[in-house]
Specification:
275 residues; mainly alpha
Amino acid sequence: MNQDDIIPIVFRNLDELRHRVVRILAVFLLFFAFLLFFSIRDVTFFGRTFPFVYPDIYHNISAQLLQAIEKWVLLPDTKLIIVKPADGLTADAYVSMFISLILSMPVIVYEISMFLGPALNKSEKLLLRTILVPASLLFLAGSLMGLLWIAPTLFRIFNNFDVGVGSQTTMSLMSFISFLIIYIISFGFSFEVPVFMYGLTRAGIVMAETWAKNWRYAVIGSLFFGLIFSPGVTGFTEVLMALPMIGLYFSGIYFTRRYERKFGAKDSNTVSEPF
């Protein structure tokens, strides 16, 4: 293939990429605008109460969700303060973007898979279809676990330390939002470990026995992950993030072994050396 044939292919691929990015942005901005410019209110008709979407930029859906998260995660005596005049608007926008990203994820995954599809062979396409749904569900499960279970426990422990040194628990709104979003995203990605392991084993890159032999390195790596991505400054938060990853690593060993028992090793020459 000469240069004259390559250039049209490159521009055609770039044009297709542009169209798919535009579709992703259109869906994302639609959700973003909806969360930022509308609120949900209860309306009573004939003695029955129904949720109703109503235009309201100040008490929008993102602000309502943020208030619900504050009540769930923080203790009643914790006080959030505004440090800069635009902190309320910025926090509202952050929450809208984060939720819009989650709601747009099926479209993002679909458009990316359709763009990469022509470049993949049959087995790679099958692998991609196999892991997409579990990967999305695991990320959602990890994010929800971090928000609904780990975060309230973590803030309760922090509050006990604050009270122990004679201080009143007060934090800025932006510090709370930044802490929570980073923590939720990190926890969501930590749940992708078994999908990553299964994908490499199914692709014939790493054998199941290799994962089992190197579990000690996985434990150390999980602790380093907690050290780097934990928004806290204490060893407790690092261990709290590392423990689910360790458990998921061993679940990944189980699923990779199960795959090999069912289908056998893909290739006897597969790379299976320790990391």
